[in-house]
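Box 4.2: Ligand-aware structure prediction
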Amino acid sequence: MTSSLLFNVTTFAYLISMLLFFVFLASRIKTAGAAAMAVAYGGLFAQTIAIGLRWKESYDMGVGHAPLSNLYESVVFFSWTIVLIYALLDIKYKYRVIGAFVMPFALLGMAWAQLGLNTGIEPLVPALQSNWLLYHVITCFLGYAAFAVACGISIMYLIKAAHDEGGQKSGESSIMGMFPPIRVLDDLNYRAIMVGFPLLTLGIITGAAWANYAWGTYWSWDPKETWSLIVWFVYAAFLHARFTRGWVGKRAAWLSIIGFAATIFCYLGVNLFLSGLHSYGGGK
Amino acid sequence: MTTKQRSFLQSTWDLFCSLKLTMFVLISLALLSIIGTIIPQGTPPPEYLAQISPAKLKLYSSLGFFDMYHSWWFIMLLSLLTANLIACSIKRLPHIWKIITRPETVLNTSLEKSLSGVVSFGNQDEPGKIKERIAAILKADFADPVVTEADGSWYLFSQKTPWCRLSVYCVHLSVIIIFIGAIIGSLFGYKAYVNILEGERVSSVMSRSGKEIDLGFSVLCEQFSIAYYNTGAPREFKSILTVLENGKPVTDYEHVRVIVNDPLSYKGITFYQSSYGKAGNYHFTISDLDGKSATPLSVNSDSSVTLPDGSSMHVIEATEDISPYAQGLTGPAAQVELHSPNGASEQFVVYANHPELNIQHARQHKGGPVIHYKGAELRMYTGLQVAKDPGVWVVWVGCFLMVIGVYAAFFMSHRRIWVRIQNGTVTVGGNASKNQASFLLYLDGLVDKIKTNLNKEKE
Ligand code: HEM
């Protein structure tokens, strides 16, 4: 058994799980929901083992390090954390439909990683040889995953709110009947961000501590750092929106979606789009 | 003060206390911060300057876009956030403080109306006895109650973790503490760098703004080395450093290993492994086209020399063996750059083992001097970042308070329970500052327990 085989199994499981969630959403058959969740758990289990195996394989190769060192490994880890956070939410609140809006994120991550990214295990460059890497990456990605879940819930919120405003009562027969009431979605959104915000805060702080330890500056306004701060500002605004007249409800849901968009930009966009500009500085 | 003035002051104060301003500032900070991630910060590189128009350049510079995180308007937004934070706290803290230190212990009608979970049931027992029972249950199950008697009625009040209401203020305070730490660092600290040749010592470093800073001690680089993975990728950059006071090694600071991610700190000044290179003297001979009147010439790696014809020359890089880079050639070679007095400049390679190529090059260039490379005496140097930041501990204290505060703000709750025993009716009410729904479930369970207990007593 190799990790790469298990990662393929994981991707497949997330695909099946997502499709089952869609069937559940459309047909309201309870078994479909249960099956979707079971497959998601199976995928999560396979992925956990696979990550562990990859870790071991890196030691067998003599370049041992936690599997969090390049884009492929981080995307895989991100997708793992999304399913993990969703599973915790399911255990606690049992709103199964949310899976239809969260599993696509996990699947997208795994599919992109498996099909589009370089999967090789590489030795660590000196700059990454630190335990801070572990603390920093784990906290950041758990935070990102909570934001992904919040984003899925916010999309549901906006769909449901638009539908409710449309005047049709959430009839038993429509798909909307499957959605939790907007009040509940609003609360779940807040709860997901309540998990994500402290983790992001910790992620930024561990990053700053590491930068200070390795380079003597805890903050240098490089694009990645700045974007993480932008994300943090957006979610800080979200947290205060609930106490501010005129900002409750839809606007808060939009803030959560914008926050996740900024998160993704911070994670991928900075490297893809801003590196061109940033590399001006690389000439010296 | 006129009423007009007062109402102006009042509305200014209200503005600074308002959360609408907070939303505005946070979102502005998020949006404006984007600018500095798109426009390069610091001295703009020539490639960037070449692609924007002079008008744009002027506009950007006057708006401070090239150092936007230190521009007046960015600092002003941060100050606005701080003022907002302080005003808001001043306004709200007294109320919160009162809730914590002087809780309402008597469940009256107006308080009852404000609670979402209130349950009443009848019980004809003697009120004093009911009170004892409920007090015992509250103590065992929740928290020791405060008991008050008034007009023949009994009032009980219990609460848990009232201080967690302060956690939000802890978060807000932490933001200000981090700002203070950053200000201390920028006023009393510096960032600098220094290159030290193997075997040499330095006692001053160059700050980023180009100022020379005296360390008050010196640092000796004993050795610099690089280790590689099998793949040829670098695995470790390592300097061995010794700190010297008055020329004598300091105990515990001798032969210290400094690698990336493992710096050396001495007297609040920290040295970080950051780069490396080779420095020393390159040796050449300069001759006529026919090889006559050869004169030796040495160039230091970080300076240039003037040739007999008035042009200046410096070395860009050199190698001990050219064969991997140029087929059929061997031996040492150096890439040099020449600036003629007329402003022209060119780069080319000169060789040690191939004088004919050097002559050929000179021929092609109007018969200038022929330059022969003779090799170099080079030593490794280590490039160190040097930082002093006396504010960094303040920043970490702020971060610590922020993490604790955020945790407490989200996951702890001030829970209160009131009980009133009056005219044969027992009324139980409760409130939680966080996660009200699950607290109400708990309260329902508690009321059931009280009922069961009181009924048991009757039998
Ligand atoms: C970067 C800056 C800020 C951060 C990180 C921050 C963080 C927080 C956090 C984590 C909460 C708890 C939210 C919750 O319980 O859901 C909170 C609440 C609050 N914040 Fe801030 N905040 C910031 C700026 C401000 C500013 C400038 C104000 C000024 C008015 C403010 C006023 C409040 C108020 C009134 C509350 C609600 C307190 C309550 O529960 O009654 N915050 N803040």
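In the box above, the bound molecule is protoporphyrin IX containing FE. The first helix of chain A runs from residue 3 to 27.
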